[in-house]
Amino acid sequence: MLALIFVAGAAPPADPLGYTGGAGPLVLDGRVDGGPGWMAAADCGDCHGQALAEWTDSRHHRSWTNDLFQAGLIAEPQRFCVYCHAPAAVQADEVIPNLAAYAALSPRATGAVGARLAPEPLAEEGVNCAVCHLRDGAVLAARPLAPGRAAPHPIRVAPELGGAEGCRGCHEFAIPAATGGPSPFLMQSTFSEWRALSGPGDPSCVGCHMAPGHGHRMTGAHDVEKLRGALRVRRAGGALVLEAVDIGHALPTGDLFRALTVELRRGAGVPPDSAEDDGWEVIFVAGRSFELVETGGPRPEKRPLSDTRLWPGQPRSVALPVDQPEAWWRVRYMYGAPHDLARGLAPLGDWVITLASGQVGQETRK
What we know:
The chain is an alpha+beta fold. The chain has 2 domains: 140 residues, no CATH class; 136 residues, no CATH class. The chain contains 13 helices and 13 strands. The longest helix is centred in the N-terminal third of the chain and has 9 residues.
């Protein structure tokens, strides 16, 4: 599994929707009314009110403005990040002149403070309707209109939007190499994970993340109840058994620094659902580890060392100290690495969610 997930191998085929995996901006080429310029999500709301309301409450909408991304951008203000979180060329044109000002906000910054951030109103829409559906002046749809129906704009059928292929261009891409171009290793590998695990009749990304009832909210790792439902925790003798359930990829997937941690507190201290670390010892990490390698480029290159994430159908056992029944354990989902939390660029509670907890001497509870 490691070879499949980490090593990109041959270059992937061109993305059918034009996404570049961070290599460059997305070119949309005009509005549906034939004019030049940007199409805001509100331009679609008169006809697609429910989709607009769902999108407004989505992480796609907040892909640029959420605190975790902004913290990451300040720490590493790279064009690569812009081309995924504010993908359209007109969005990138707003943001790229601001990258020096983002860098100056870092706790590691030295010297003069950069210019103030200029307004970024287009980037603040994040991944909006146009980013997914507008190409060459036409609206992409997963399927043709029903007989007898018409639309007030050109429509082009793009079946990829109805399956996993429509998500690949943003949710699977290589680590940027320090010397330019992509590394042979994947930074995000969700599409390959799904492809390795799925079989005939299994749902695609759309089947799980756009299920009826939430559609364009596209719920995922920031939907706490959905996240808790993807993890089964049970006791087996002196061990805690963790298993990924009802998902088609590894847990966690996505950002390379996400992880599940199993933690133990042997005495009195903060409650198990607290984001605080005082008195807690990490006894297992389900995640990926990397090393930084100097390759002669302007910065070190990340290279994978290990992958201990949870895979559906492969329970993981973590030993508990059975001689300490009063000790507490907890399983937390980490949206970043310890060094991300230590920078203090986003509230601690945004980085961490407790998914399950209990005492060693009691039955498991979530």
